[in-house]
Task: structure prediction
Amino acid sequence: MKNDKGDAMIRNRFLISILLVFVLLFYVFNDSYVALLLLILTISLFTFSCILVLFVRKKVQLTIENKRSIYNNQNGLFTLHVKNNSLFPVTKVKFGLRIHNVLTNEQYSDHFYTALNGKESKSIPIQLKSKYVGKIIFTVENRTVYDVFGIVGSSKQLMKQEELYVLPYLNDINILLDTWMTDFHEDFLQIEEKGFDHLDVIGLKEYEVGHNVKHIHWKLSSKLDHLLVKEMSNPKDSSYYILLETSVENMEAKEINEMIESTYSLSRALLEQNQAHYISWLDYDINDLKVEKIISLDQLNHLLRKMLVMTFKVKGETSIHAFSHHKDRLQLSHLIYITSLQRAESNLEHLHHIKWNIIHCSLGKTDDATTSA
Result:
């Protein structure tokens, strides 16, 4: 977006200054009408140019147009529509820009120059490509109109904004829910925390090879002289809970990008298997867990826009610590924990008092395991 007009303006100011000094010296040392007329003409031109700036500065209008969303590493396009409502030309006008990714907190400032004839409208395309997901706020902060000679300028604060959502790509994730639920059923009775038993005995059946010996009804079996096995109900709430860690070791845009992509892809994979689930993270604005139940793709896409403006902190309470004290922690069967490798081991220490199926998804490595935290 930057061009050579900024350097050219500096050169113009230097040359104009030399010209003024030359005309003034020519008048002082040359007692003639030609020198006087040249001096009057030069001063008149500069004066008219400065007055013209004051007149046309309010006649330049700006609007911004853009696509509402793109995928990361795709070209986004902002179109600046600039119009000169004056009959006089605007030889130089500068626009100051600022681009801010709210999610990664990256900021970039720039500027560009253009010129407009009288009553001319111009559309200026500005391409933007972001490697990382997030909500991009594109701001035209100010506008400066310069005179013909580039000596003086009149600035005005604009603060015109447009938003662009950079969406994550969908990663191919194969979730074997049946395997997860089998592991869950096998280990569920090992949970000894009071109030965490979601299984009911719904009947008795004869023992067969492959049945869990922990389900044998020993007292009744001893009376009937053959083994009977308790037929257990399914868990009342076999829920899946995706927990996104918002406390990071280092504020790196790449790490945040991968965590958002992983969360979105996992949620899509669960929806494809008709599995309702929850997505949660620690919201530092309200200092509490933000919990959203996802049962449709529309809900997920709506939540994605909130995820693209969430706050990550290098230091602060972790999402997993907040979750370990949350009321929902005893109502789930599977916790899918999205975190960085640096945070993973230390963060899981907060779960030492409960046994879950924890599907731990770390950047660069994915482990599916039943974990006693």
In short: Residues 283 and 289 are 6 Å apart (CA to CA). The radius of gyration is 34 Å. Residues 180-198, 360-373 have pLDDT under 50 and may be disordered. Helices lie at 5-29, 33-56, 177-188, 218-224, 253-272, 297-307, 319-324, 341-347.
